Amino acid sequence: MTDNALAILKKRFADSRDEILLSTLDGEDFTYGQIYANAKKLADDWRGQGVLKGDTVAFVLPNCPGYLSAYLACAIGGFVANPVVFELLDESINYILDLAQPKLVVRDAPGLDATLPVPDDFSFDAEPDKAFVNIFSSGTTGNPKGICHSFGSIIGNAGSFARLSGMNEKTRLYHVLPMAYMAGFQNTLICPLLAGGRIVLGPGFSPASAIDFWRRPIEQKVNFLILTPSVASALSRLNRDPDIAEKIADIEQVQTTAGQLTSGIRQQFLETFGKPLQDCYGVTELGGPFTTQSAKDARDEDNVGRVIPEMEISVLSSTASEGELWIKTPFVMLGYLTKQGLEPPVLSDGFMATGDVAEFKGGKLAITGRTKDMIIKGGINVAPIAIENTISKIADVKDVAVIGVKHEFWGEIIVACIQPQSMDNANALKLSVQNHCAKNLAAIHRPDHIAIVEVFPRALNGKIQKHVLRQEIGAKLKAG
């Protein structure tokens, strides 16, 4: 199924050669052919710097128009793309680079030249079953986790998800997600490209940009948005235009991904903008996005929608994981990146455990919980153990447990539960923890709330019962 990936990509560029693929913030439009020409020049430049087929090229870049060309240059040259989140602390960036061992590190944003001649033939030297991209997310050990996908799995999954979402040549997708993460790469670059659509670049999202968020989508006649739940919530809260629903009537679909979509955010967005948020679920290890809701289901049902046809779904019940979601797909990753090489995924009869608790009825998937200990704040995975390790170094901390508590805006917030050596210095310890985290953790990993706990709830084996903490702390925060 993935062995025709090269033919699919080649045909897309041939068929859409003179159609616009990318619209930049600077007001420039670049066709499929022009983007390919820039990517080919980039691949040739890298070859001139000694990069060979199979070598890794790392991008330490903010979002930029040249990011797409960098990904495509790797497909043209048969290189392995290794995007690195630009905002990470130097320690994490260095860890990723040390693990990936790139032949070349790109730190200057590649430019785009509209005057380059477009070739008559579009060729790609990537091999469908070989490594094409390493996507890093937070790992359960606290270090970023490298997930390696083949060219075939990326193209195969992206094409299938694009069809499920109804993307086509008329799609004009507004891109505001980080391009180094799976959603900003697969959902919002590769999917619309394979569908023959247009990608309209927007600025990185912030509360300040939210005030003027809709101006560019309206001017560019955007008809497809992909947001995170926290971005959708911020847009609803900060909107000041009573006539906005009428102004964005041409937007046909608004998907949300990379985080839990609560009923409150759904309702608030629908009431503010007249648009239902169509939930999308995916797992990076399994190829990225693979479910989405129809607009009707998004109004009436609490699920993440239908699944791409290539996937097999199994919901297993056991004493260890009640109702855990297992998935079998041809788009599964090649493995996790380690110093010793790729560590293949753990499969059972071809199925992989997702760590999510789910129900699957009538061809639609509903996610009801998580068995894994990961916090998802604003669509970004945060590993509790990294924060716990940092806080545990403070002398007056006896024990610590970091949990995620549900939040309407962020999906989850980070709560550090601290057991002091002595309850007498609890208030001073809170301030000490805040200062220590500010100095030693990236902003996205810093606790949003610090709770002092006199005694932790523990299981018979001595392990802290985080599910009990979530209920207790969540109830206290809700009560104010």
Strand content: 25-35%
Question: Using DSSP, what is the number of strands?
Answer: 25
Overall tally of structural domains: 2
Count of helix runs: 15
Biggest sheet architecture: 13 strands, mixed
N- to C-terminal separation?
53 Å
How are the secondary structure elements laid out?
Blueprint (H helix, E strand, L loop, with lengths): L4 H11 L4 E4 L5 E3 H17 L7 E6 L4 H12 L2 E6 L4 H11 L3 E3 L24 E8 L5 E7 H15 L6 E4 L6 H14 L2 E4 L5 H4 L4 H5 L4 E4 L1 H10 L5 H4 L5 E4 L6 H11 L3 E7 L4 E5 L2 H6 L4 E3 L4 E5 L7 E5 L6 E4 L2 E3 L8 E10 L2 E7 L4 E3 L2 E3 L1 H8 L5 E11 L3 E10 L5 H15 L8 E4 L13 H14 L1
Parallel strand pairs: 1-9, 3-4, 3-5, 8-9, 8-10, 10-11, 11-12, 24-25
Antiparallel strand pairs: 1-2, 6-7, 7-17, 12-13, 13-14, 14-20, 15-16, 16-19, 17-18, 19-20, 21-22, 23-24
Helix pairs in contact: 1-5, 2-3, 5-6, 9-11
How would you describe what is shown here?
Helix 2 (32-48) packs across helix 3, helix 5 packs across helix 6 (182-195) and helix 9 (229-238) crosses helix 11 (263-273). The chain has 2 domains: 5-370, ANL, N-terminal domain (Rossmann fold); 375-479, GMP Synthetase, Chain A, domain 3 (2-Layer Sandwich). Strands 2-1-9-8-10-11-12-13-14-20-19-16-15 form a 13-stranded mixed β-sheet. A 4-stranded antiparallel β-sheet has the order 6-7-17-18. It has helices at 5-15, 32-48, 66-77, 90-100, 151-165, 182-195, 207-210, 215-219, 229-238, 244-247, 263-273, 295-300, 384-391, 426-440, 466-479; strands at residues 20-23, 29-31, 56-61, 80-85, 104-106, 131-138, 144-150, 172-175, 198-201, 224-227, 253-256, 277-283, 288-292, 305-307, 312-316, 324-328, 335-338, 341-343, 352-361, 364-370, 375-377, 380-382, 397-407, 411-420, 449-452. It contains 15 helices and 25 strands. The mean pLDDT is 91. The protein is an alpha/beta fold and 480 residues long.
